[in-house]
């Protein structure tokens, strides 16, 4: 049979365009075809994979000269160094000044200079009880600020005097006398006087001038 005769015999069996479209739509409506199509999740995953692939793909450097490659390497190294300096190094902890502790059962956090100024003000008013106690607190705070003593909250005046005497042995006698004066004024209600205040002032001035002995410093 000739090709022309073969085509003529088969042509009646071929559908027209409208009928072919209808057959195709029916075939694609089959559930098996729909199951084979990628879902929305599949398409999203594919998009993410393509994005990461584009992001991590090493560019083609065939056309780059040695100078350009050196510049690129220098930029990468610089970026790494900057990143380490900013994020990689441990941050230095800022040493905060330790909060002043209470002195002799009182929640008094004033500095030594503040206590001295208030003691002088009390002395000018003739309030010798306040002047004596404030100036002795200045002695304790001053030694604490210098790191020579560290009386815990609630420490007694006598306990402070013993600890301070170990740090400054030359002042042991004056510390004991001043501690007795403080106790007399505060607890035994014995009146403060200008002379008692002067003794505490002399102790405070001596404590400021005296350096700890090498043995006590270690």
Q: Classify the helix fraction into a percent range.
A: 55-70%
Parts with pLDDT < 50 across at least 5 consecutive residues: 90-99
**Largest pleated sheet:** none
Radius of gyration: 46 Å
The count of helical stretches stands at 11
Principal-axis shape equals: elongated
Strand content: under 5%
Structural class: mainly alpha
**Whole-number mean pLDDT:** 74
Order of helices and strands: HHHHHHHHHHH
The end-to-end distance, rounded to whole angstroms, is 120 Å
Could you give the count of β-strands? Answer: 0
Protein name: DUF4129 domain-containing protein
Pfam families: DUF4129
InterPro entries: TgpA-like_C
Keywords: Membrane, Transmembrane, Transmembrane helix
């Amino acid at each position: 049979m000739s090709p022309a005769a073969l085509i003529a015999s088969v042509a009646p069996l071929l559908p027209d365009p409208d009928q072919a479209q209808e057959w195709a739509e029916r075939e694609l409506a089959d559930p098996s075809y729909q199951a084979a199509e990628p879902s929305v999740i599949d398409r999203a995953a594919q998009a993410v994979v393509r994005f990461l692939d584009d992001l991590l793909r090493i560019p083609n450097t065939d056309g780059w000269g040695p100078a350009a490659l050196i510049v690129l390497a220098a930029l990468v190294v610089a970026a790494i160094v900057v990143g380490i300096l900013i994020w990689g190094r441990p941050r230095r902890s800022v040493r905060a000044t330790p909060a002043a502790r209470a002195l002799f059962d009182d929640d008094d956090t004033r500095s030594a200079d503040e206590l001295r100024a208030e003691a002088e003000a009390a002395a000018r008013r003739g309030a010798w009880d306040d002047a004596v106690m404030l100036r002795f607190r200045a002695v304790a705070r001053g030694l604490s600020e210098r790191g020579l003593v560290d009386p815990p909250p609630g420490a007694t005046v006598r306990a402070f005097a013993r600890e301070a005497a170990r740090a400054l042995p030359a002042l042991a006698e004056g510390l004991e006398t001043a501690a007795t004066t403080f106790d007399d004024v505060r607890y035994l209600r014995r009146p403060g006087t200008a002379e008692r205040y002067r003794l505490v002032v002399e102790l405070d001035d001596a404590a400021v001038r005296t350096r700890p002995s090498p043995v006590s410093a270690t």
